[in-house]
Amino acid sequence: MDTVEEIRRMSGYGGDVIVVGGFPASESESESESDLAAGEIMVIWAIQGPTSFAPNALVAQSSLELRLDACGHSLSILQSPCSMNTPGVTGSVMWDSGVVLGKFLEHSVDSKVLSLDGKKIVELGSGCGLVGCIAALLGGNVVLTDLPDRLRLLNKNVQTNLHRGNTRGSAIVQELVWGDDPDPDLIEPFPDYGTHLCFISSPFVHTISNTSFFAVHFVVLGSDVIYSEEAVHHLVKTLLQLCGHQTTIFLSGELRNDAVLEYFLESALKYFAIGRVEQTQWHPDYRSRRVVLYVLEKKSKRCLTDESSLNQSC
Ligand SMILES: C[S@@+](CC[C@H](N)C(=O)[O-])C[C@H]1O[C@@H](n2cnc3c(N)ncnc32)[C@H](O)[C@@H]1O
């Protein structure tokens, strides 16, 4: 299959991304969101052939514990395989895309194409909490979130793995239901608030204004959070509520349903520039052809076609 890939950099991630759409002055700028989303699905399924590979090759979902080395620590993530029999419960075990995203963050920080130090980070649909724990070990001030009845296991995993003294950043667990208005703490200071006070010389520079210390970039993380059309609708609304023009989103997903992923991309491309991170930039030991990893940043105002339609479309 012949494809011409356009490579870009995004402001909160220093590695290359392959343009999916939504960038200013891009070859894709004139294409509709639905054409861009359909094109991406064709490309990704053709390149990765996900159906030929077994799901969850990186985690044993039947085990009560997942052990993983990250950031110089041996992490112990408790799972509850039995809870997966309860309808609607999906986060009581880990998923491959969570392991991929966590190890990608570690690898990117080690490779100096990403800094999470001192950044405010919100993780959506944290499940067992591996990704948020790794982000805190990498220096982020992380809020791990999930549905209200999913927080017990999440809390336990955070307490087990993060202690004062072993963690460069911090971690708290909080309820967040996609589509509901987020707790004001989650968006305080609002992602755009610091920008006029800050002098920005590089994507990774933290800025000092008098005695205040602003992290220029906010980060939102999500692994395997794109899995049903109904969830997509609420997820995109929450992403928009959490994101200002200084926010970078990292989403990893499992390639199990082309229609749902296409629906997500089409919805998100209305508001976000989206780039795909190639597997060559992931942690070399944690790659999977059933997983895809995207970076999203809010479109520049010039590219934003109709932000006022948010409430109708999400
Ligand atoms: C497939 S699991 C992925 C869990 C984890 N991120 C991982 O990679 O292992 C999806 C997660 O999203 C959460 N979730 C689903 N719908 C949600 C909603 N409407 N609001 C908040 N969280 C939700 C689930 O409880 C679950 O933890």
Automatic annotation (TrEMBL):
Protein name, as recorded: Methyltransferase small domain-containing protein
PANTHER family in alphabetical order: HEPATOCELLULAR CARCINOMA-ASSOCIATED ANTIGEN, RIBOSOMAL LYSINE N-METHYLTRANSFERASE 5
Pfam name, any one: Methyltransf_16
InterPro entries documented for this protein: Methyltransf_16, SAM-dependent_MTases_sf
